[in-house]
Amino acid sequence: MKSIDFAPILAGLLMLALWEGLTRFFQVPSVILPPPSAIGAALVERGPLLLPAAGVTMGLALTALAISIGLGTLVALIFARIPLLERSLGPYALVLQATPIVAIAPLVIIWTGIENPRRAILILAVIVAVFPVLTSALAGLKAVDPGLDRLFRLHKASSTQRFLRLELPTAAPFLLAGIKTAAGLSLVGVVVAEFVAGTGVTGGLSWRLVEAGNRLETATMFAALFLLALMGLALHAVLSLIERQMRT
After folding, report:
1. How far apart are CA 169 and CA 71, in angstroms?
2. What pLDDT shows up at residue 169?
3. Residue (of 100, 180, 167, 163) closest to 140 by Cα position
4. What is the 3-state secondary structure of the chain?
5. pLDDT tier at 106, thresholds 50, 70, 90
6. Residue environment code for 55-92, b if the CB has 16+ CB neighbours within 10 A, otherwise e
């Protein structure tokens, strides 16, 4: 079993202690920068409100990630099978990825209907997260050893057999690396989309951030940010564990 690295934990505790000490020594107003103790108190006090909101945001992010994995892998398979399509449509995928999500969010919200904010949020999050899955899966499919591919064809292996026994094992590490990137981007996409949607109907954590900001409850804002960071770390930790299990 791999030993725990305590260096990041000690560094984090040191930074929190320094943060606490400096804010108290210089008497920084809590509305500008609350000390960690105030943030912890806000997390406990507002927990019944923030935790369900965090669950909503995480649920949307996981749904967007699942859609991105399916869609990105499917498009990568099509591009790998039909290079002409990759040459024709690949540049447009790059254009879509390079377009800031906040620029297209109002259009998506209008197209899906203002009464369907969750649908708009999912679409925007998928747009952000699908590209790493697509590029990683495509790179993995192209990394198949030509010699092994010829050997499979020589033994008259079917397309399904080649995919399951050759292409998929080769592409899996590439795909997982793309999924790890997409996981963080799906969470970012949901948060940004919730902000742009500007509605509390979804009940996500972004709306709680907006509410706290309007009320100048800075400690509550930091508590919500802490939960968002914790969610991102949890996603990364789970995917890293899966990656280690695949390597063993």
Report:
1. 19
2. 87
3. 167
4. CCCCCCHHHHHHHHHHHHHHHHHHHCCCCCCCCCCHHHHHHHHHHCHHHHHHHHHHHHHHHHHHHHHHHHHHHHHHHHHHHCHHHHHHHHHHHHHHHHCCHHHHHHHHHHHHCCCCHHHHHHHHHHHHHHHHHHHHHHHHHHCCCHHHHHHHHHCCCCHHHHHHHHHHHHHHHHHHHHHHHHHHHHHHHHHHHHHHHCCCCCCCHHHHHHHHHHCCCHHHHHHHHHHHHHHHHHHHHHHHHHHHHHHC
5. confident
6. ebbbebbbbbbebbbeebbebbbebbeeeeebeeebee
- CA distances for 1 relative to 77, 150, 237, 241, angstroms: 37, 40, 16, 13
Angle at which helices 83-98 and 47-81 cross, to 10°: 150
Question: Are 41 and 171 a contacting pair, CB within 8 Å?
Answer: no
Q: What is the pLDDT of residues 44-97, one digit of tens each?
A: 999 999 999 999 999 999 999 999 999 999 999 999 989 999 999 888 888 888
Question: Which one-letter amino acid corresponds to residue 151?
Answer: L
Q: Residue 53 and residue 115: Cα distance in Å, rounded?
A: 19
Can you give the pTM of this predicted structure?
0.90
Q: Which residue has the tokens 């109002």?
A: 106
**141-193 confidence digits (pLDDT tens):** 999 888 888 888 888 888 888 888 888 888 888 999 999 999 999 999 898 88
